[in-house]
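User:
I would dearly like some help making sense of a protein record. Take your time, and here it is.
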Amino acid sequence: MRTKSFAELSKDELADLAELMKRLQLNVPSRRTRRREPARKGSPDLRRTLRRSFRTGGEPVEGAWRTRRRRRRRLVLLLDVSGSMTDYSRALVLFARAALQADARWEAFCFGTRLTRMTKVLPAADAKEALRRAAAEVVDWNGGTRIGDAVRALMRTNVVRGAVVVICSDGLDVGEPELLSAEMARLSRLAHRVVWLNPLKEDTAYEPLARGMKAALPHIDVFLSGHNLASLEAIGEAL
């Protein structure tokens, strides 16, 4: 199951895959927050040091320290559910479902010709129900692809700053490559890291010749396949 391509899975195997995806470890990097907490070393905590000095007659014998708290960065998933991604889109939706169950702050979006937020829809208890809700929510499922418009709409949601953004798409775009290039450049400046999963990379002879893929490639930090469970495990390490 780990090495079988998503394009070859049956409906029953998709349900089994959903259970296996719960074990995926997505080690998203952390960041320092503005809030501080007690620590063994760091910057001096004058208030706590003063309180402790009351025990020793006002002499600051025992110093106190504090440091900034660390918190996992937000993970933002952008899934292509257009017609060219039909063989892979359902499995990738299940991947997004498993990721959202790991952290309530993470976000998931689907797109074909327009962007649809799926964060509240996907974390359903049952995998088949999650797929049904996704298909009902996304009105342009199995339609055309406008990646540049989707990335521009994603930027307006204000969830990408400092986040790890994972785009799952084959790069077959009917929009203008100049728009996609400009929006990907903006995204790379705002996001902590941009990861692109292209299931066509499962073919060792694949080259990113599609105009959409060529426009986006210079602004991508990590370029992987994402065509089976094993490749998704590699994403967890790459993050």
Observations:
- Residues 96 and 155 are 19 Å apart (CA to CA).
- The first helix runs from residue 11 to 21.
- The mean pLDDT is 89.
